[in-house]
Amino acid sequence: MTARRRPRWSELRPLLQPGAGPLGLTDRRLARASSVEDLRALARRRAPRAVFDYTDGAAGRELALRRSRQAYARVEFLPRVLQDVSSVDLSTTILGTPSSAPLVFAPTGFTRMMHTEGEPAVARVAARTGLPYALSTMGTTSIERLAAEVPKGRRWFQLYLWRDRAASRDLVERARESGYEALVLTVDTPVPGPRLRDARNGLTIPPSLTARTVAEAVRHPAWWVDLLTTEPLEFASLHRFEGTVAELVARMFDPSATMDDLAWLRSAWPGPLIVKGVQTVADARAVVDGGADAIVVSNHGGRQLDRAPTPLEILPEVADAVGDRAEVYVDGGILSGSDVVAAVALGARAALVGRAYLYGLMAGGERGVQRAADLLLQEAATTLALLGVARIEDLGRNHVRLRPG
Ligand SMILES: Cc1cc2nc3c(=O)[nH]c(=O)nc-3n(C[C@H](O)[C@H](O)[C@H](O)COP(=O)(O)O)c2cc1C
Ligand SMILES: CC(C)CC(=O)C(=O)O
What we know:
Elements: H1 9-16, H2 25-32, H3 36-46, H4 49-56, H5 63-73, E1 75-77, E2 92-94, E3 97-99, E4 103-105, H6 111-114, H7 118-129, E5 133-135, H8 143-149, E6 155-159, H9 165-177, E7 182-186, H10 196-201, H11 211-219, H12 221-228, H13 245-252, H14 259-268, E8 273-278, H15 281-289, E9 294-297, H16 311-322, E10 327-331, H17 337-345, E11 350-353, H18 355-387, E12 400-402
Parallel strand pairs: 4-11, 5-6, 6-7, 7-8, 8-9, 9-10, 10-11
Antiparallel strand pairs: 1-12, 2-3
The structure holds flavin mononucleotide and 2-OXO-4-methylpentanoic acid.
The site of 2-OXO-4-methylpentanoic acid has 8 residues, from helix 13.
Organism: Jiangella mangrovi
Family: Belongs to the FMN-dependent alpha-hydroxy acid dehydrogenase family.
Cofactor: FMN
């Protein structure tokens, strides 16, 4: 007689979360979400406040985030009619490799805190949908585990430069050995951005048990059941850390990094190198001179320097300055497929999204991320058809104009 195996906590998860089954509440709610904003509302209900605010929030007075979003509202499309849009093609190339759409899943830290399915869930959706996914240095799934769990699809690795350069070199080496296609060096985080919501909420990594978090547990049981029934958070790169996000950045990140470090990385990484967080034309020129194959015009979703330049507004200038030597991507404030179309029309080869898929993840794990991706792609296709453009590759600045700010 074989001994009866005791169920593991993780196997009990579906029973403890009745909404998560195939016919469950979560699926019906996700199906009813008709925009990323609807997913955001679901995410807000499911996640504890500190986790939702970490994701949703930005630096200082959040002016940079608000402006990044408002810039998309200033874009007016100029549709052409009678253009045969019976079939619309969103496909393009990113770094010379085919992509189903000009869209990339941006690197985000602590993704398993939003939902324990975390990075592998996002990477699976990206692979299934034919889009690249960037694992963050601050990810909560290791470089090797992600590659093993999601071997298909395009995996990029995002690097923060540690004070400990040997540790950074080790990360680059591990990404290379695990078959990551591209390296994304983020350059807008020399010191922690002032995240006021995190400070007010007393957010720590991992979330600690305090009177406040226990009270939150009662109000958001699904999230806590999830957290308690999976393995502890693991880091893509850190061994162990406990403290606030600001403490972590201050302790680990290297504020003394210079263009010499870019030169070092260029020589250490044989594949495509993307520099993320470029915010001026001068820096775009400098990093492309330094060997970047692509740049992301980004203010980190408004999470670092408040009052930073608005990515969509500087995008055309940057694309004009370096677009013939490097691919130019943009991110910050993109919440719809129509935003993606606006970004491409204004000169981006691709747009990155962060919060858009994280809202889906918080709302319903992998299925929520899939819903976010589906919404973005459907909206982009509809926008293109209504613009009278059958192929996204034919989209240009002649299809948009900017309303006065
Ligand atoms: C919760 C969260 C965590 C993030 N973590 C990282 C990170 O670890 N590395 C990085 O380069 N960017 C990080 N970012 C910035 C994103 O890569 C991206 O630039 C930003 O989310 C784009 O703005 P959007 O969220 O409005 O789409 C993070 C963003 C969010 C919302
Ligand atoms: C540790 C962080 C700075 C992660 C990040 O990039 C973010 O929260 O925006």
